[in-house]
Amino acid sequence: MVGRVLVLLWVTLFAATASLGGQARAASGLEKNFWLEGPRYGAVLPACDDPAALAEISSGFATKERRFWNSALAIVGIDRIRETAFRPWDRDLIPRRFCAARAWISDGKARPVYYWIGEDTGFIGSSWGVQWCVVGYDRNWAYHPSCRMARP
């Protein structure tokens, strides 16, 4: 019953919209300028060696390994941290700080880790966020090949 009502509602809405027809019109001056100022980025981001950013990488790596790959691997240390780029693209894009480091994995291997810290890319855009890739452990190839897509 509820499904039929929803389908009938959608059909009615579609028919009403289609019957309006006419040409599309451009936005008025009020529509163009009313609360549509665009993003205002401050480009205030934590440094590559910020403990909160490194903790996010370590936590995210352990969670991903445990949840999706049934693995107990974890990052036990991160060193050789360096910034590789800051806002490498147009100034109107989301500010990002690109970083590289060496991650020590609990299996005894040292692997390169590439990550970026971006403004307004955290939980629901309320703060900065971190995206990362550990070379050799990108099992779903999200940043393949060899984490190249996590770099500038």
Lay out the secondary structure.
Blueprint: H1 2-20, H2 29-33, H3 51-69, E1 75-86, E2 96-105, E3 110-118, E4 129-134
Antiparallel strand pairs: 1-2, 2-3, 3-4
In short:
It contains three helices and four strands; from the N terminus they run H-H-H-E-E-E-E. By secondary structure, it is α+β, with helices and mostly antiparallel strands.
Could you please describe the fold and organization of this structure?
- This protein is an alpha+beta fold and 152 residues long.
- It has a domain at 51-150.
- The protein contains three helices and four strands.
- The chain has helices spanning 2-20, 29-33, 51-69, and strands at 75-86, 96-105, 110-118, 129-134.
- A four-stranded antiparallel β-sheet has the order 1-2-3-4, covered by helices on one side.
- The longest helix is centred in the N-terminal third of the chain and has 19 residues, at 2-20.
- It starts with a helix and ends in an 18-residue tail after the last strand.
- The model has no long low-confidence stretch (mean pLDDT 85).
